[in-house]
Amino acid sequence: MKKTIVVGVSSSIAAYKSADLVSKLLKKGYDVEVIMTKNATEFITPLTFSSLTKHKTCVDTFDRNVQYDVEHISLAKKADLFIIAPATANIIAKVANGIADDMLSTTFLASKCPKIIAPAMNTAMYENPITEDNLKKLRNYGVAIVEPDNGLLACGDTGKGRLADIETLLDAIDEHIHIDKPLKGKKVIVSAGPTIEKIDPVRYITNHSTGKMGYAIAEAARNMGADVTLVSGKTNLRVPSNITFIQIESAKEMFEAIKNIYDEADYVIKSAAVADFRPKVEALNKIKKEDSNGVIELERTDDILAYLGSHKTHQKLCGFAMETENVLNNAKEKLLKKNCDMLVLNNLRTEGAGFGVDTNVVTVLTKENTEELECMPKKDLAYIILEKLMEV
Ligand code: CTP
Q1: 155 noted as active-site residue
Q2: Rg (alpha carbons) of the chain, rounded to whole number
């Protein structure tokens, strides 16, 4: 069944951005209901939201022309998650103090689902100790606060107070709608993306990895409650919010970054496409063709996964493999040789699998089992990989 998100819109200039939020939530397959404060309707009309959601947009408690008997209670019960975005200082003050004098504040108080507040206001109002206290109070009540961004505000000031970007809000919704938190209290390291091995200041050796699988795993682990560190090579992907992000370039940098935090980790998922070789010498200046014999001497990089496997104490370790021949045997051998608990074998030559695409086709190997999975979105596969790793 579709999950329902209730989006509360209060009277900030950022109210128009809520239409984009609602539209993206609908595209993600959620059912969305919108409640506006009366003043918010000065910035954007209820019709905008009704046209998107195909539901009546609720504005105040005295509107009887609606399909629910006691609307605020019905919506409160229906909601799987409640987000107020943008949230003004006024609505924050009201809900922090249990004031319920309009449709939005009433429904917020009546709902028991996970709640998120995304403030948007002038910097001075945001930094006023009264607002700070109200936000602290809400945090203590278990409401998640998505902090506003720094930037130019509608009033002409520059500072903190811009509504967080929509992708960050979507991230927060994905995170908090996951009521099950089986990885709560666990530390998860995910490596993702390609490495870059420099030949000279201009050229390098790399591979086709886009990082999509690894980033999906990092987000899924965060949504499952884990404390996530993502160690990533260069990608074009947005850094997921609410995780620790370590940007690296080379295999050596990735090795150092992971080694430093390995002791504390509970789960390590090595989805990065690490170069096996790097140039023996990185030229300080651009290599001129006249000076080159066309041969670049290479040396082995450290095998990070093998190191982690041989230094394992309590960690559960998941490696990835990309094979093109003798696929299953090579993967099994790799699982044992690198002392992994699980290995995800990418079926590179299958339709819907591999680099750059949003789906993947994999076989999951453990010491006891081999399981072929059907083609599915990387975002769904990410949860399955984590669930399976928790079970081995
Ligand atoms: N890996 C690693 N360090 C390396 C190379 C690979 O940690 N220097 C990890 C990858 O992150 C992946 C796994 O090892 O999880 C498998 O990588 P793959 O390139 O498929 O295999 P290799 O071990 O490099 O072996 P081969 O060249 O024989 O395929």
Answers
A1: yes
A2: 25
- What is the average per-residue pLDDT within 142-165? 92
Tokens of residue 378, six digits: 């990387």
Ligand 1 mean position, distance from CA 305 (Å): 7
10 Å CB burial of residue 313 (0-12, 13-18, 19+) is: exposed
Name the residue among 171, 176, 165, 170 with its Cα closest to residue 17: 165
**Across-strand partners of 149?**
162
Per-residue pLDDT tens digits for 82-121: 999 999 999 999 999 999 999 999 999 999 999 999 999 9
Contacts of 200 (CB under 8 A, 6+ apart): 282, 283, 284, 285, 286, 287
The verdict on the CB of residue 25 being under 6 Å from ligand 1 is no
User: How confident is residue 347, by pLDDT bands cut at 50, 70 and 90?
Assistant: confident
- The protein residue whose alpha carbon is closest to atom 27 in ligand 1 is 276
Strand partners, 6: 33, 82
Identified catalytic residue from 113, 155, 318, 375: 155
